[in-house]
Design a protein that fits this description.
Length: 408
């Protein structure tokens, strides 16, 4: 399959637009009713209070930093499918009208950590547009099952060259399963069809190189810039100085995460500080490039910035067996509180300081097989059981959350 921007399937597109029109009409009628009763503003306050209760990041540190985090969360939460609206016809988070990797790689991981049900709706967009992706692949001569669809990207080069989006989509599905263990999406709702199609696509695009003993992608000139023994540090030191300083906003957050993984906090902060050149006042609107050009309001940059908090400062890593954490952040941040992380159906809050970490299970999973979780500390191997409404505290160190090992 080839997930290039904005592909649609003709038949399903018409149905989706009819449903969308109906839902918008219902929302309009509901809104007019609230206006008539004088309760529209109150309903707005209540709806956002419910969202913030399930998704909150508080930083005891510089005020502009906290404001940037809240601004990013506000705009990303505004862009996701309404919670509790399982049949809402979500049409993707777009960049200049096209659903690129901006959705699946930059924005989606943040949503997944807090609201897996909204993340699922994002994945269902990819399921609904699978036929169009299959059509794109067939037109390029690669192996897929036949279907109908069309590519609507205005420049052909993007449709032909942005093949990394297939990997972005596949990773999003994998991350969802690791966080939720939800088999229904794959077995009954089309998720497996997406995974299978992407696998077929890549298998048809690679050839084995006997001399190098690895696979090459057909039609791509892959030049290995770094030898295999080069470290992550070398990658950062080589690419950081040659990256366009006027480049897109999400760039700096990825460098920051790389440096934080190496425990180079000062170098990470040099990259994080660049993000603020893309934030405009007074409403914390992000622009794609620091000179004001490009997309506005740039959700992709916000997604990267938030990932630097979650996967950088908190050190979260989503794996098949656990949710890892390894906190590290600059000295001007005294405490980092992250409320509402969802793992295997349970809701967790994390409080990090330099000296102590506290993890609380605020709500346990309704699935009894998944509801018994524990914290494992990397340094000592100590296991700390998590119970609903209770907290565990320990000296700040790396560790992970997993299903309790005593379970079969």
């Amino acid at each position: 399959s080839v997930w290039t921007p904005g592909q649609v399937t003709t038949g399903s597109y018409k149905v989706t637009m009819l449903i969308k029109t109906f839902c918008e009409g219902m929302s309009f009628c509901e809104g007019m009713s609230l206006i008539g009763s004088g309760s529209l503003y109150l309903s707005h306050i209540q709806a956002w209070a419910a969202l913030w209760e399930g998704c909150c990041v508080d930083v005891d540190g510089p005020l502009p930093f906290s404001q940037a985090i809240y601004g990013c969360l506000y705009y990303l939460l505004s862009a996701i499918p309404p919670l509790g609206s399982a049949n809402f016809p979500f049409s993707g988070i777009n960049y200049w009208g096209h659903v690129f990797w901006d959705q699946d790689t930059w924005i989606y991981p943040n949503i997944l950590l807090f609201y897996p049900e909204a993340a699922c709706a994002i994945l269902k967009y990819r399921i609904r547009t699978l036929e169009g992706a299959l059509h794109n692949a067939r037109e390029q001569g690669y192996k897929v099952e036949c279907s109908n669809g069309r590519e609507v990207c205005p420049e052909k080069i993007y449709g032909d060259e942005e093949i990394h989006i297939n990997g972005d989509v596949m990773l999003a599905f994998e991350q969802y399963f690791c966080i939720t263990q939800d088999l229904k999406l794959f077995q009954q709702e089309g998720g497996w069809d997406v995974v299978q199609a992407i696998t077929q696509y890549w298998c048809s695009r690679v050839v084995w190189n006997c001399e190098e003993e690895n696979y090459h992608i057909v039609g791509k000139r892959v030049r290995e810039l770094l030898s295999r023994d080069r470290s992550q540090r070398n990658d950062l030191e080589i690419y950081e100085p040659v990256t366009d300083p006027q480049g897109p906003a999400m760039t700096w957050s990825m460098f920051a995460i790389g440096w934080l993984e190496l425990k180079e906090v000062k170098r990470a902060q040099q990259q994080m500080s660049k993000c603020f050149s893309n934030i405009t006042e007074p409403f914390k609107i992000w622009v794609e490039n620091s000179d004001g050009s490009g997309a506005v309001n740039f959700l992709t940059g916000m997604g990267g910035f938030l990932q630097a908090i979650f996967f950088g400062y908190a050190g979260f890593r989503i794996s098949r067996s656990c949710l890892k954490f390894d906190p590290i952040y600059p000295d001007d941040i005294k405490q980092l509180n992250i409320t509402g992380i969802c793992y295997l159906g349970s809701k967790l809050s994390f409080t990090f300081t330099k000296e102590k970490t506290t993890i609380k299970m605020t709500k346990s999973s309704p699935d009894l097989h998944l509801s018994v979780l524990e914290v494992v500390l990397a340094g000592t191997g100590e296991h700390l059981s998590l119970k609903e409404g209770q907290s565990v505290s320990f000296l700040t160190t790396a560790g992970w959350i997993q299903k309790e090992s005593a379970l079969p």
